[in-house]
Amino acid sequence: MTTARELDGKVAILTGSAQNIGRAMALALAEGGARIVVNTRASMDLAEGVAKEIRDAGGEAIAVQGDVTKEADVQNLVAQTIKAFGRVDILVNNAAVRLRSPLTEMSFEEWRKVVAIILDGAFLCARAVAPHMIAQKSGAIISMGGLTAHAGAAERCHVTAAKAGIVGLTKGLAHELAPHGITVNCVVPGLIDTTRDGNSAVPHAHGHLEAIVGRQGRPHEVAGMVRHLCGPHARYVTGQTIHVNGGAYLP
Hints:
Elements: E1 11-14, H1 20-31, E2 35-40, H2 44-56, E3 61-65, H3 71-85, E4 90-93, H4 108-136, E5 139-144, H5 148-151, H6 157-177, E6 182-189, H7 219-230, E7 241-244
Parallel strand pairs: 1-2, 1-4, 2-3, 4-5, 5-6, 6-7
Helix pairs in contact: 1-2, 1-7, 3-4, 4-6
């Protein structure tokens, strides 16, 4: 159940939110009343565009550039959030990269790049916002998982390992932060109709999967679950991995 403006007074940081699912989540949380910090590593024009969409609809939003693999950038992201809005209530770890390489051709540099963005970035961001959430005795952290981490995929061992690590990080943080009123969950999108490298085709890694509902999902359907987990009706939900996949994978 989602109540209109149920996030009034809340402030949300969303990493990697300049387009696709990230953009949809930013718009959904803003619709719920949250003030939004749109983050991007490189696409500042796109990030500013999402922030402007929110402001044009009557909401409040800023865009902050920063690389989630760099501790100084993460600290600046949180500092800019506090400067603009005075608090942080929600963190959505969405920044990711999805490269493909056979194991025998994968360089250690490529492995580290993927793991650093997905897993190290989620750790750095969670660690940076935790003191603020602990001080106010409330908060919600949602990290985006990956379908292939559960179903498997060839040529993606770095992505599957990093996204599987997100599940472990979620469980560990849920235990540690629960006494402070902070929930921590993982949302795993399925086959979502987004633009990847100029097209919206089903990714190669998902070729062996098929949603039983007969279609790909849409970004707003993932965003709706994230919004729910941030709101007042999900305060008893923590440490969970929640699949939004149309039945493409049934754990």
